[in-house]
Amino acid sequence: MSTQNTSTSPAAAKAKPAPRAKLMDTLELDTRLLGMIGAFILVTVVFNVLTDGRFLTPRNIFNLTIQTVSVAIMATGMVFVIVTRHIDLSVGALLATCSAVMAMMQTAWLPQLLGLPLGHPLIPWLAIAAGLVTGGLIGAFQGYLTGYLLIPAFIVTLGGLLVWRNAGWYLTNGQTIGPLDPTFQMFGGINGTLGEFWSWVIGIVATLAAMGALWAKRRDKIRHDFPVKPVWAEITLGAIIAAAIMGFIAILNSYEVPAARLRREFEARGEVMPEGYTAAYGLPISVLLLIIVAVVMTVVARKTRLGRYIFAAGGNPQAAELSGINTRMLTVKVFAIMGVLCAISAVVASARLTNHSNDIGTLDELRVIAAAVIGGTALAGGIGTIYGAILGALIMQSLQSGMAMVGVDAPLQNIVVGSVLVLAVLIDIIYRRRTGKG
Amino acid sequence: MQPLVEMRNISIAFGGVQAVDDVSIDLYPGEVVGLLGHNGAGKSTLIKILSGAYRADSGEILIDGKKVTINSPRDARAQNIETIHQTLALADNLPAPANLFLGRELRTMFGFLDDSRMESETRKIMARLNPNFKKVAEPVSALSGGQRQSVAIARAVYFNARILIMDEPTAALGVHETKMVADLIMELKAQGLGIFLISHDTREMMALCDRVSVMKNGQLVGTERVEDVTEDDILSMIIMGKKAEKAA
Which domain of life is it from (chain B) (predicted)? Predict the structure, then answer.
């Protein structure tokens, strides 16, 4: 028996990975993505056990997603920055400046200068527009310093970290500005959710869109005589995607609004809450915003010239230039996109806190860079994905809030997060060496 | 006959070094002109002025007898000048189609990248240039030297170049692939393209070129028709930096 075992095991060990790899190829799944999803699931399951099942409740999953949004939005932009071999250390500070501009717009400048009364329906939108323009312009300016004046991005944005945080301080005289406009607050998370019905609608629309995209891709391949996946693989992939989307919506829809809060809402309208009435939060608007940002950024990365040039310039700047790509202007664009995303994150972050404070976004630069890097963005340039960065942000946030729930000391929390960042990059390096990718 | 390209009295200096010093060369349709010289003789620099990578300090460039300004690679491409750089200038993280169409992507009617059409065009041209080429979807970093070379060549050929610049096209290639490039040069020449070829291999140059221009220390030593000179004549021009007394 034993001899038979030893003689067959090497062969079996050799043959074993092959069918699995083949299955992956057939499904055209990214093993890297699966690895990250696996790590994410592992983290959540471990914390769920450690917290006696409190981690994976609808309530905590809801909180986890709204806590992740701000960093995740910026992380998608950081992918472009790092892919082009730059870095942006100023994102947290830039978020603070944009937040200050928007807070001042809605509480001081618009009411006083334009005479719009507080609560005017235009106020939140004008404030957000001002924030987006501010973020875009500051980002473009930092991109100009980097791309045209050739100051290293590390220095430009290290300076920016000090400049913009304190520019924000001057705008508000160091005061905390609040409460922010009620409509504006709806972008923060718990104060702006879609409710059960619209969450299902969004879920169904998203599922149909994903199926449509899969189908269109397959049809396009057939039209060009490229090999296509077998139909069963296509259906399996579609089913996994549909289950993931609808499962996520179902979880958010099972988080019910506390009865006391509902009763207050009815009382505010001068009504009496019917007996046995319940309502669920559903999909937060901020999470919907993140999903939209993720889709737009993925399309930019994969389907536009801008995205193609970002990756080409990151892979080989000289080749990009010799191909007639204006790499300097490209740098300006990349940093401008980063700035606009900081402004969007500023909307979410300040709306969640219901006010603007000076320390908003402090240390976000580190979280954002860590999210992008854990998500597989290579600091050497040319490699990175939007979904990876979002998953990275989710993993980081899960670790942080999981440890908080378990009752780990704050200093130890940071030690763990820092170690995980370094470890994740090490694993990535080993993975790339093994597979010969990148 | 009208020359396709005339570069007249071109000079360029980097810092204090006169990399190209008052050099004039020309190229006719259906002709291969070789540039020879030691490392640092100024061949690549001269040719990079034509391809738009560098801007000359003085001198002028004429295409079809008309003076043109080439300030960027984009300007050069607009004049149907295509370059295969010594470094190949490929983005290693991207697959062949993305590299082939870099800067000139095919797009759908909505303005998005048409990756399927680019892939299918890439398959078509690669089938012609290098039938063994299969790795269309993988990053070019996964390709062999010869395969990378054929991507770079495909990029130049696909866009109907009239003037082709090849900087050391066979330096990294094996025997078989070198032969393939030589055949391709002859084919393109027959189609009426003008080709500037840079190489260290004098024997290869004697076989492929109609004329050779020899450079040394940034200056033009001379331009000769290959049938008028021997390999030794050319070698002495490269080494001595002056025209050999013709034996015959």
Answer: Bacteria
| Complex confidence, ipTM | 0.86
| Residue ranges covered by each domain of chain A | 29-192+286-435, 193-283
DSSP A186: G
The fold adopted by the segment(s) A29-192+286-435 is: ABC transporter involved in vitamin B12 uptake, BtuC (1.10.3470)
* SS3 per-residue string spanning B53-100: CCCCCEEEEEECCEEECCCCHHHHHHCCEEEECCCCCCCCCCEHHHHH
Residues of chain B with CATH 3.40.50.300: 1-80+161-247
For chain A, list residues whose CB is within 8 angstroms of any CB belonging to chain B. 220-221, 223-226, 299, 302-305, 308, 311-316, 318-325, 382-383, 436-438
User: What pLDDT does B67 receive?
Assistant: 93
Enumerate the residues of chain B whose CB falls inside 8 A of the CB of residue A223.
116
CB-CB under 8 Å, A221 with B94: no
**Nearest chain B alpha carbon to A225:** B120
Q: Which CATH superfamily does the domain covering B1-80+161-247 fall into?
A: P-loop containing nucleotide triphosphate hydrolases (3.40.50.300)
Please write the tens of the pLDDT for every residue from A145-163: 999 999 999 999 999 999 9
According to the model, what pLDDT value does residue A328 have? 95
Rounded-to-5 percentages of helix, strand, coil across chain B: 35, 25, 40
Q: Which residues contact A370 (CB under 8 A, 6 or more apart)?
A: A392, A396, A417, A421
